[in-house]
């Protein structure tokens, strides 16, 4: 028996939990905690001194020198914006501020309340959402947003990035087995002691927090979900959630309730799950061809479930139907 060392805390507006399957690893947990806080302090739109806030404040004015971690995340975000034809767009910050969905619980002076914006405002703000107007200079590590009022929001990729860096720390410490959960973005590292597969529950996107539709069995992998249930509000019977469609400015509205991805990189899974959620099941197919390592579980509004790629899913919630789909 090797024992466990665990850490539960709160950062990036979300809860996180780290379990290392080794006794007494407090130094490693300290390093993980410090690293999560460092990333939050660099990339949060809710911290005025963060790299992202400084970039946003200088939009249309000047290029801003940033930490190389921030630079790398923005570079990767732009890659996924390109790959997804703009469905994932890290320059969506002005639009997410306009809606304010999910900001209510954040320690945040930017936007205290969600709202349904006026169509005129959406139309104006949409012209400020365009990842092609993010100018990177990799020699000097600077970032420039070419239009005044434009803003970055890395909320769809930073949790995944943080999970991957946490995995690096755990590996470097020589720890073989661990479970990482940062705001529902999960990484199962190594093998279980008895060599049986890990089990990861897939959240019921219609249920209250904690309810699951089933579970996957897997070796080492990240498990990342984008869905309508994470941050939302309801008005006049309409559900407005936090994943916005950059093409029309409204919460992404298609046949999906959620999409869960498994991949070796949580950052890639994070960006791609958001992109796939915006694109919808039919239109997202091409992304799987470019990313052969990923697999997916799609949960549909009609309560059907489909899978893509190599994934071992067991349905336990009788309200949903499962049909294998390669
Ligand atoms: P996720 O939960 O990973 O799908 O990310 C959703 C978060 O990313 C939202 O709370 C916003 O901060 C931001 N976001 C919303 N829509 C998009 C989009 N189309 N592209 C990139 N980021 C987005
Ligand atoms: Mg994401």
Short description:
The protein is of the alpha+beta class and 326 residues long. It has helices at 26-43, 51-57, 68-83, 93-99, 119-126, 158-172, 266-279, 285-290, and strands at 5-11, 14-20, 64-65, 134-137, 142-145, 178-182, 185-189, 198-203, 212-218, 221-227, 232-235, 238-241, 256-263, 295-300, 304-308, 312-315, 321-323.
Structural commentary:
- The chain is built from eight helices and 17 strands.
- The chain has helices at residues 26-43, 51-57, 68-83, 93-99, 119-126, 158-172, 266-279, 285-290, and strands at residues 5-11, 14-20, 64-65, 134-137, 142-145, 178-182, 185-189, 198-203, 212-218, 221-227, 232-235, 238-241, 256-263, 295-300, 304-308, 312-315, 321-323.
- β1 and β2 form a beta hairpin.
- α3 (68-83) runs parallel beside α7 (266-279) and α6 (158-172) runs antiparallel to α7.
- The strands form four sheets. A nine-stranded mixed sheet has the order 1-2-6-7-10-13-14-15-17, with helices on one face.
- The protein is an alpha+beta fold and 326 residues long.
- Residues 156, 226, 270-271, 273-274 line the site of magnesium ion (MG).
Characteristics:
alpha+beta; binds adenosine monophosphate; about 325 residues; binds magnesium ion; three-stranded antiparallel β-sheet; about 25% strand; nine-stranded mixed β-sheet; about 30% helix; single chain
